[in-house]
Structures are given as structure tokens and as C-alpha cells.
Amino acid sequence: MMGMTDFGVSDLLAIQKLVHLYPLCLDGGRLDDLGQLFARARVHFEGRAEPVEQDPAEITRMFADFVRLYDGIPRTRHLICNLIIEPESAVTATATSTVLVVQAAPGFQLQPIITGDYQDRFEKQDGAWVFVERWITNDLFGDLSAHGKYAIGV
Questions:
Q1: Tens of pLDDT along 53-106?
Q2: Residue among 77, 85, 149 at smallest CA distance from 115
């Protein structure tokens, strides 16, 4: 069993920050930064046969190809909730979280548009926590017409 000194509050906060940087980058239209979050990760997208393997440019491209931007931003808020971080060792951890996405765009009133779950794995590499795997799934769908350039999940 791990001792308390093996995995501390600073580790929990660093992982929490990573989880919350994802919506900060996405909602801010910072798609290159979003891709960089997953530079060392395997990312699984529901409905896509193969994961993206440590390819930040591909992650950026996928989001740029799908997400509608209005003056450079998607006019969304990805609200991360129910975050549960589970330390596995001093240098590995997993997390689960739920996402609720709301959007308001020109001609589109503020409303929830989609919910889903993230399943993450993290490693501490060179003294910093990084994503090493993310599973993105969606389960409840609203009106995505102002969000995506093509239909998903419905």
C-alpha cells in the first residue's frame, strides 16, 4: 500500500489542472494547445475505430475539422464535474469525470447540447503529470447543429 508521502495533494492538484485545461483550451478556441495536452497520450473517441496515438497535430486537426468556431471560439462551456482521481502509485493515476456542454451561438439560445464521460490515465514523467490515455464517450445528446460541422451520436 502506498504511503501518504508517495502521492500528495500537489499530485492531485496537478492532475485536476490537466483535466480542467482541456475545456479551457477547447472553449477558448486554443486547439493547438488542446492537441499538446495529449502529446504523450492515446486518445479514444467513441465511434472512431482506432485511437489517436501520441499525435497532437492529429488531435488539433480533428477538433478543427469538427467544431464550428465563431470569431475563433466555439461559444461553448465544457463543465467538468464528478471528478474522481484514483492514485495507483507515486507516478500513475486514473480519473473519471462527467462533462456537460452548454452552448450559445448566433441564433442559438443558451442550452445544454451534450453530456459524456472521460476516463483518463496519467503518468508523472520528468517530474510533471501528463495524460497517457483518454477515453471520450457521449451519452445524452441535444441540439448539436451550432456545435459540429457534421452529425455525431444521434
A1: 999 999 999 999 999 999 999 999 999 999 999 999 999 999 999 999 999 999
A2: 77
CA–CA dist 17, 11 (Å, integer): 10
How far, in Å, CA of 4 to CA of 132, rounded? 23
User: In terms of Cα–Cα distance, which of 25, 34, 40 is closest to 59?
Assistant: 34
* Average pLDDT, rounded, for the chain: 94
DSSP single-letter state for residue 7? S
Three cell numbers, residue 138 = 457521449
Q: What share of the chain is helix, strand, coil (3-state, %, to 5)?
A: 25, 45, 30
